[in-house]
Amino acid sequence: MGPVTTATSRGDTPKGTPPTPRPAGRGTAELLLDAARRNMRQYGMLVALALIVILFQIWTDGVLLKPNNVTNLVLQNSYILVLAIGMMIVIIAGHIDLSVGSLAAFVSAACAVMMVEHDVPWVLALAIGLVIGAIAGAWQGFWIAYLGIPSFIVTLAGMLLFRGGTQIFLGSRSLGPFPEGFQKIATGYLPEVGPNTNYHNITLLLGLALLAFALVQEVRDRRRQKAYDLEVLPRNLFLAKCVALAAAVLAFTMTLASYRGVPVVLLLLAALLLGFGYVMRNAVVGRHVYALGGNQAAAKLSGVKDKRVTFLVFVNMGVLAALAGVVYAARLNAGVPQAGINFELEAIAAAFIGGASMSGGVGTVFGAIIGGLVLGVLNNGMSLVGIGTDYQQVIKGLVLLAAVGFDVWNKRRVGA
Questions:
Q1: How far is CA 286 from the centre of its chain?
Q2: DSSP-derived secondary structure letter, 368
Q3: Distance CA 175, CA 179 (A)
Q4: Peptide bond preceding 177: is omega within 30 degrees of 0, i.e. cis?
Q5: Are 91 and 361 in contact (CB under 8 A)?
Q6: Which of 98, 134, 52 is nearest to 348 (CA)?
Q7: Residue bearing the bigger pLDDT, 358 or 342
Q8: What's the CA gap between 361 and 90, in Å, rounded?
Q9: Dihedral sign, CA of 299, 301, 304, 305?
Q10: Helix (H) or strand (E) run with residue 168 in it
């Protein structure tokens, strides 16, 4: 007979044995170091963004953070940020989309033709433009998901197809102007109401509501982590984090409120950030996107419908590309054949700078916004100090190379 297996030999704790004491709490420095390791890309880009802002704020003698320039930063980069959100999801799923710039141009041209030449109401033109984007995304998603053609090839073909369609619609002409309601999508602001306070009252209320929401979420996340016996920051550090968050929200709110208030397009970006952030963190389809990009074979064995998820990812990207084209056309107040050039490169760069991984399965929607803001502040700051576009391209290329190189180095370090 073999040896008798006891509870102790199996590794179980026998009845009556006192529980093993939990290890003593770790120091503040060690907790901070672990948090930094777990979120190195995102935290690193936040620090980089802060340093870039401080650098150009000093270099431009305070012009960078003036209220009118902060508003211009939002307006100038709005369509790239919309594309970056969709591109981040595509890259998390393990794919790439080279057609988004051309699709944005195609939708903007189609909307221009409908509104200017055929007097289609702008709301209907907007809806049709988004439907065109969804159909284009579904077309590309079908070839990628169900026929297995690499996304690089399919979207490269789409880039040529949609760019050609834009030329067919517009030729060498520009179509405009657009109805006022359509223009306000990219250039409008919330109306001023209430007493004269020298600030935009609605913006102040929205800022306070955002601050309350953010602080409640922080407290809820901390309680949830403690309920599952996960490590949390010490109370003093948590309070310091909340104070920093409150200071950032209030500073941004007061900056916008001292000029013309919240731009309409900023509300659109906030809705996209909150919506897609929730889906990618909490919804089943969001977890499936991460699983598919992290390990497709394991995801399929776990029951993930990989073809359906991939198809939906590209449909979503098509809708967001169409929305970016609408925002761009509304800002220019014209449909132009040169629209969308290099938009896909800016969106891809924003995603990788914001923490996406070349191998898929890694990244956040918030990171895409941070990456887009890094590029936007670089563009704006270098223009303010008079750096030529040629040198701007060189600097942005080095920033992208550094971000991807850091990703590769970090993976090797973790693997070792």
A1: 14
A2: H
A3: 12
A4: yes
A5: no
A6: 98
A7: 342
A8: 10
A9: positive
A10: helix 151-170
Backbone phi and psi for residue 126, each to the nearest 5 degrees, phi listed first: -65, -45
- Which one, of 151, 142, 152, 257, lies nearest residue 197 by Cα? 257
Crossing angle of helices 365-384 and 389-415, rounded to 10° = 150
- Distance (Å, whole) CA 273 – CA 362: 17
Percent of the chain with pLDDT over 70: 88
Q: What is the pTM of this model?
A: 0.87
Residue 139, both tokens? 């077309």
The whole-number average pLDDT for the span 205-234 is: 88
Of the candidates 99, 100, 98, 53, the one whose C-alpha atom is nearest the C-alpha of residue 81 is 100
Per-residue CA distances from 311 to 134, 242, 370, 392 (Å) = 11, 39, 27, 36
Taking each helix axis as running N to C, give the angle between helix 100-112 and helix 122-145, from 0 to 180 degrees, rounded to the nearest 10: 150
What is the torsion angle, in degrees rounded to the nearest 10, for the CA atoms of residue 262, residue 341, residue 346 and residue 320? Answer: 60
Question: Does the N-terminal peptide bond of residue 150 adopt cis geometry, omega within 30 degrees of 0?
Answer: no
Say whether 335 sits in a helix, a strand or coil. strand
Q: Concatenated DSSP letters for 230-299?
A: -----HHHHHHHHHHHHHHHHHHHHHHHTTT--BHHHHHHHHHHHHHHHHHHHSHHHHHHHHHHH-HHHH
